[in-house]
Amino acid sequence: MNKLKSVRIVLTASLLSLTICSTTVSAATYKVVKNDTLFNISKLFKTSVTSIKKTNNLKSDNINPGQKLKISAKIYTVKAGDTLSKIAKANKITLGALRKANSKWTDSLKAGQKLIIPGVKPGTTVSQKVEAASTMRAASTMKAASDGVIPYTKEEKDLLARLITAEATGQPYNAMVAIGGVVVNRVQSKEWPDTINDVIYDVPGGYYQFTPVKNGYINKPASSIAIKAAGEALRGADPSKGAMFYFDDSSTNKWLWSKTKTAQYGKMVFVK
């Protein structure tokens, strides 16, 4: 091991130690927002719908905006100099997940402020979480960088193919690949979550990013051509030309139409 690697390891260990010391272990209270579902909340906090229902004595899956749910998660106390990005990185979660868990859509923070750290269970240190994540990745069907431009599991490829099926059945093949490209572009961007699963199920501010997630069509089986398109996108094909959004050309959303158009295939318009 060379000296540079030794220094990096010491610095990493020091950062982990500081993070552990400044994190208060506790159960959290999550406030339901518009368009929330128990399923999406369970995905955010890496738990199950059954567990949430049991903890909160819920008799059905119905929840309402403003309702408060007890969730097993850590509470972090903000320190001077903290930023949301630093907190998310130190706790190995996405910035999007941190924002969603706290309904925090601005970057302003105050020392002493409490933040929910989603997906980190009470009693779990950061080092334990990193080790657990590494074990899960090793046991999964994660693809190597030589196979894809981003890491992904077999399940995530299927999820991407199901999104393409729901959004672009009947549209040109390039439109299908381009939709996959948009998801890949978001995973690669610092502005969005860093996994396919988190990008597709992202609901910032209570707004679904992909209609099939909201209407349930995401759960329908993927077509063979969509699976092929998903594979091409994961290998780096991007007919969207760097787009971050797409929509049907019948849309009346002025905000989407105001963005820079990069491509159009059939009825699908791609913008960034």
UniProtKB/TrEMBL annotation:
Keywords, alphabetical: Signal
PROSITE patterns recorded: LYSM
Range of residues in the leader sequence: 1-27
InterPro entries from the UniProt entry: Cell_wall_hydrolase_SleB, LysM, LysM_dom_sf, SleB_dom1
Protein name stated in the entry: Peptidoglycan-binding protein
CDD domains: LysM (cd00118)
Domain spans labelled LysM: 28-71, 74-117
SUPFAM superfamilies the record matches: LysM domain
GO molecular function: hydrolase activity; lytic endotransglycosylase activity
